[in-house]
């Protein structure tokens, strides 16, 4: 059984991702921790609790984490894609949670769960990496308890928040560099290049909507998101970025990865927040261009198989 902690900033695609993990019979969802990102921390925390209530999984603890980046302010939220509350302005349509968020913060909760774990735990960060950077800095002795990080973020060829940078990495580049470059925990990065290719259309959404009340509730969250991606894709569909990463966490190998040295641009130029992936062929490199540690970059998948896996999981089948 896969043991998971999801660190998230819900977000429409985060809601789909949490649901996928919460309903998977082969997964033990140990906790959901929240971070600033698509919207402010109080909203991301409330949204996570509501999604778990929708899934009838209020046994899963929720803890709030960082409400800002490690060093520099987040330039802006993602209201343009996710709406004012993160869920297309429709968060109140989800059931109210009867369980309060944990008084212990996200980092302390993750540390306790890792310390108590008798088997390695997979952590799935699908928002800015601030909580994960703080966890690894504060509890370095627990790094060996982490089986791997499956991170939704970054891009090989251009971003979405800027021409160079993807939103999660761009929101806190210093935290991302600490996690992706400065640590040795095994890591899979699921970039925009792949998640866009996994986009789903209105027919897929119609099938989910018709699967029952839970599927209908999830589909009710997408209007603002669909409007945004209609313009971005050029057709009626949405990109479930975070659910693609959760799929890899639940079924290791569903995404095809290639190991590359990686760095994160923490400068203040136009490429701030970019993931710099070194795809040069092997052999000696010029002085001053030493390779950083390698990260598995998810580059491909069986697109139809992945969409079917997501749909079956979200339908509870």
TrEMBL record:
Pfam family, one: IU_nuc_hydro
Coiled coil segments of this chain: none
All residue ranges annotated as the Inosine/uridine-preferring nucleoside hydrolase domain in the record: 4-306
Keyword entries, A-Z: Glycosidase, Hydrolase
Gene3D superfamilies from the UniProt entry: Ribonucleoside hydrolase-like
Domain of life: Bacteria
GO molecular function: purine nucleosidase activity
Location of region: Disordered: 67-95
GO BP annotations listed: purine nucleoside catabolic process
SUPFAM superfamilies: Nucleoside hydrolase
Single GO cellular component term: cytosol
Name this polypeptide is given: Pyrimidine-specific ribonucleoside hydrolase
High-level lineage: Bacteria, Bacillati, Actinomycetota, Actinomycetes, Pseudonocardiales
